[in-house]
Amino acid sequence: MIPGDFQVKKPTKSQMWKLGALGVLGLGVLAGTTLVLVFVISAWLGRPVVFGFNEGPDQPIAFPHVRHVTDLGMDCTFCHRNVTQGAAATIPSAGLCLTCHKTVGDGLAEIVKLRDYGESGRPIDWVRVHRVPDHVRFVHEAHIRFFTQARGVEAQAVCSTCHGDVTATDKVRQIRSLKMGDCVDCHRDNGAPTDCTTCHF
Q: What span, in angstroms and rounded, lies between the C-alpha atoms of 161 and 16?
């Protein structure tokens, strides 16, 4: 063998740039994949780890629960009327809000938005805050009935079990994981049924 036959050639500047770009791209893909995995795994185990997630989403109209519930003493069931009758709690239409706000709130920016929705007939596109998986059937009426009749708890206090004290924050946000373990633990603690067909039917 002749010395120097197996020496590696020194890469050219062009090759170095390509290798550097490939390395940066690889790091970017790795970082992106890591972020996606952190989000998915944390969402599966509880609430997603995302900057700003705990603040709650911005809504088309900033609704002041503190003003309506704490200051004026309105009950949750006044606006969320279907909560005692059906599966969904329902969000009030602009028409319900305008029963008061046709005359109350002149000059307030959020009331102006509300009146615009009412006059145009467009629905308010509220951003959903609480969600359970599609294969779960959560019936609000059954939960309200159980606690108000069997335990003598006011409907508003029942709502705060899952939704927290919405009057303490500017934005409504999800405070509980609403995963199966959370629901099963609550059912066990309150003597409610825990068989699969209770929620999966």
A: 60
Count CB-CB contacts under 10 A for residue 76.
23
pLDDT at 116: 95
pTM for this structure?
Answer: 0.70
Q: Where are the domains of the chain?
A: 28-57, 60-91+130-198, 92-125
All residue ranges of the chain with pLDDT < 50 are 52
CA–CA separation, 30 and 182 (whole Å): 33
Cβ neighbours of 50 (radius 10 Å): 12
Q: Note whether 187 and 193 are within 8 A (CB).
A: yes
- Residue type at 47? R
Sign of CA dihedral 44, 46, 49, 52: positive
